[in-house]
């Protein structure tokens, strides 16, 4: 797993070409504020090759955060991440590897009958209780997450995962009450605390799409304070000294800034946005959709773009995302080597200061 010594050595090897604050603290490690995302693309050998070469290039260029999930491209993204880490001229212990479990992932390609695959692989085998399967594709029950974590370790070829996310738990709200979802999160957090004690994961977190950036009356809302409380209860149940809950992931960009603007989480002094609550609670924030799957490379509000540094619009969009308060790393999809250097070079420009960032919303 990633270590303090190796990540600091990595930072020392690369930091001179980047602007101030490009590398940021995560636990006792230091990580790049730009990370590799691996969501997009088809489950093909050609896409595998593109991702492999892009990840190797990024790792050798100053990016030491790679984010994936077991369901991305039918488990191929995890497997490519593992191969790229092996092939890159970089110490494994210098790289923060994050993955996720929740959505059912097919194996290598999409089956002709997805429902049959899920029945045979997960329901008939007893890995998933039918009552825990939401929308026929999502589960966060402890035994299922246990199974998925083991598969991810095998896919990645790693002894331990640095950051393991519960993936979009708000999906469970389609079939369960909010209280039932919190209860299931607590049970699964307890299992992850046990896996952390066993050395299989270093930290865990919650990756969401809507849950933390909508108001309490929204059907997808989950309370970040309640999630933190459930993690503390899980730590007590597992007998760990402190919770291993360390991070959240959510979308954040110029057009999707709800995590900063929507105050829906009750803090010590009243309602707070997800970013500010996470900051006060000591949680790291990893942002997804930093350039909206390329859309921000084509269009951005003039008044916002004028405040941002970067040679290209994509670089300015990345720098907006990593300027937000409390953000550790902004993830950018890097499915081919073509745009890796442009994305990485965004880190050679200063992000917005706190005052300038606030002014964008005035």
Automatic annotation (TrEMBL):
Pfam families, alphabetized: Aldo_ket_red
Superkingdom in the source lineage: Archaea
Domain NADP-dependent oxidoreductase residues, every copy: 34-211
Protein name: Aldo/keto reductase
Organism: Halorientalis brevis
């Amino acid at each position: 797993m990633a270590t303090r010594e190796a990540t600091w050595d990595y930072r020392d090897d690369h930091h001179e070409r980047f602007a101030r604050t490009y590398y940021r603290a995560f636990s006792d490690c230091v990580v790049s504020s730009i990370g590799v995302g691996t969501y997009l693309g088809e489950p093909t050998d050609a896409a595998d090759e593109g991702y492999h070469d892009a990840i190797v290039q990024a790792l050798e260029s100053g990016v030491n955060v790679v984010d994936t999930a077991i369901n991305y491209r039918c488990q191929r993204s995890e497997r490519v991440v593992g191969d790229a880490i092996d092939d890159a001229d970089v110490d494994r212990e210098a790289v923060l590897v994050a993955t996720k479990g929740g959505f059912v992932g097919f194996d290598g390609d999409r089956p002709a009958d997805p429902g049959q695959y899920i029945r045979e692989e997960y329901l008939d085998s007893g890995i998933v209780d039918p009552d825990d399967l939401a929308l026929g594709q999502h589960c966060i029950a402890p035994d299922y997450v246990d199974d998925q974590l083991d598969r991810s370790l095998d896919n990645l070829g790693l002894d331990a995962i640095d950051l393991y996310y519960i993936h979009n738990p708000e999906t469970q709200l389609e079939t369960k009450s909010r209280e039932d979802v919190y209860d299931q999160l607590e049970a699964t957090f307890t299992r992850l605390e046990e896996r952390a004690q066993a050395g299989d994961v270093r930290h865990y977190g919650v990756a969401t799409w809507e849950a933390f950036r909508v108001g309490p009356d929204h059907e997808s809302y989950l309370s970040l304070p309640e999630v933190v409380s459930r993690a503390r209860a899980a730590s007590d149940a597992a007998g760990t000294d402190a919770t291993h809950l360390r991070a959240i992931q959510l979308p954040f960009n110029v057009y999707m800034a709800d995590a900063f603007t929507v105050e829906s989480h009750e803090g010590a002094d009243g309602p707070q946005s997800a970013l500010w609550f996470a900051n006060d609670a000591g949680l790291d924030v990893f942002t997804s959709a930093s350039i909206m799957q390329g859309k921000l490379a084509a269009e951005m509000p003039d008044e916002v773009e004028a405040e941002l540094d970067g040679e290209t619009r994509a670089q300015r969009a990345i720098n907006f995302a990593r300027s937000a308060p409390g953000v550790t790393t902004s993830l950018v999809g890097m499915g081919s080597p073509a745009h890796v250097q442009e994305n990485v070079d965004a880190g050679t420009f200063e992000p917005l200061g706190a005052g300038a960032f606030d002014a964008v919303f005035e």
